[in-house]
Amino acid sequence: MEYIRNIPHESVRTLADEVRAEKGQIVSKTLAQNPYVSLTLFAFSKGEEIGTHDSRGDAMVYVLEGKGKFTVDGKEYLLEAGESLVMPAEKPHSVFAEEDFKMLLTVVFPLEKE
After folding, report:
1. In terms of DSSP bridges, do strands 58-72 and 75-80 run parallel, antiparallel, or are they unpaired?
2. pLDDT bracket for residue 113 (50, 70, 90)
3. Model confidence at 111, in pLDDT bands (50, 70, 90)?
4. Rounded-to-integer distance, Cα 21 and Cα 42, Å
5. Total number of domains constituting the chain
6. Which of 29, 67, 84, 93 could be cross-linked to 98 through a Cys-Cys bond (beta carbons 3.0 to 4.6 Å apart)?
7. Is 0.85 surpassed by the pTM of this model?
8. pLDDT of residue 40
């Protein structure tokens, strides 16, 4: 069973090459999704955005290429390639593409109490 999917195993990859957005698009590629963690690649074309929302888990973004603006609980952060940001669980956040950009999103969800 593969826990990480949609990407070859045992193959050296450049993650930014795994997704591509055309003008007016946001493209996503899910690499892992389960009750504990979500791993998704995103490619945004300039001017595209994901509106304000929140998450049950902590969400960490790592910018692979370009520049994106992240707003967390009203505070803006401008991230460039090589930079990351943790957006805490249950805090409203949004993403805006200042220019074409790509990111890896990792969300770690709380363990459910039995």
Report:
1. antiparallel
2. low
3. confident
4. 8
5. 1
6. 67
7. yes
8. 98
